[in-house]
Amino acid sequence: MADKDISRHEGGREVGGAGSPEPYESLIEERGPVARALAPVAGFGVTIANMFKPTVTEQYPFEKAPTKPRYHGRHQLNRYPDGLEKCIGCELCAWACPADAIYVEGADNTPDAQFSPGERYGRVYQINYLRCIFCGLCIEACPTRALTMTNEYELAGPSRAGMIYEKQDLLAPLSDSMLAAPHPMVPGTEDTDYYTGAVTGPTPEQIDWVAQYRPDDPTLESVRRADARSEATR
Ligand code: SF4
Ligand code: SF4
């Protein structure tokens, strides 16, 4: 059986070791009498120092703390000023996602059902918030700025399936001056006119089209009211 090492440290010197009888200098400084006397209560220093600082408890959910302007929260699928959707169903966001959290199915726009400028639109759009890590790579990949992130951080669902947000959960709300899709593009324009900001709102032709095919569409009324207001201020 090997000899038991009975060395011990005493005053910065090793003594009693069987194999190393030479003394050595310890790097640990000797504590003075005052430091030794205060040692038992030194651990309370942090506690006492914090007792006199202002309280930082947040009263969430009664008071929601504002986020930083560029905080990565829930996604949003944006629209053009006339109400057409910006998403063209290209799937670039889904390919860019490192967590495989996005599922997109594109479909063709038709003269009877034009959802976005150009040939294609996003028919199915899902984001699985159980997978999303809010990295923002998807919004960087989007060629039309259809996909952006809001500051909304309250994301909850009743079940695992409830955490998969569908297109209707992600689409930006329609403002008073927007006409719900589908409807034709502004006459005489191409998709590039939309990208460059040439379209500023619905035209009478688009309003007439929706009135003909969806006379009960609630956005017709709000668009007409917004039109009347802007006429009055001219
Ligand atoms: S934020 Fe990141 S993880 Fe979430 S959907 Fe976009 S790319 Fe995927
Ligand atoms: S959100 Fe953007 S990147 Fe994703 S499918 Fe739509 S257009 Fe393409």
UniProtKB/TrEMBL annotation:
Record GO terms (molecular function): 4 iron, 4 sulfur cluster binding; iron ion binding; NADH dehydrogenase (quinone) (non-electrogenic) activity; quinone binding
Gene Ontology annotations for the cellular component aspect, listed alphabetically: plasma membrane
Catalytic activity as recorded in UniProt: a quinone + NADH + 5 H(+)(in) = a quinol + NAD(+) + 4 H(+)(out)
Compositionally biased spans, kind Basic and acidic residues: 1-13, 214-234
Record-listed [4Fe-4S] cluster 2 binding positions: C97, C132, C135, C138
Cofactor(s) this protein cannot do without: [4Fe-4S] cluster
Job of this protein: NDH-1 shuttles electrons from NADH, via FMN and iron-sulfur (Fe-S) centers, to quinones in the respiratory chain. The immediate electron acceptor for the enzyme in this species is believed to be ubiquinone. Couples the redox reaction to proton translocation (for every two electrons transferred, four hydrogen ions are translocated across the cytoplasmic membrane), and thus conserves the redox energy in a proton gradient.
Protein name (Swiss-Prot/TrEMBL): NADH-quinone oxidoreductase subunit I
Gene that encodes it: nuoI
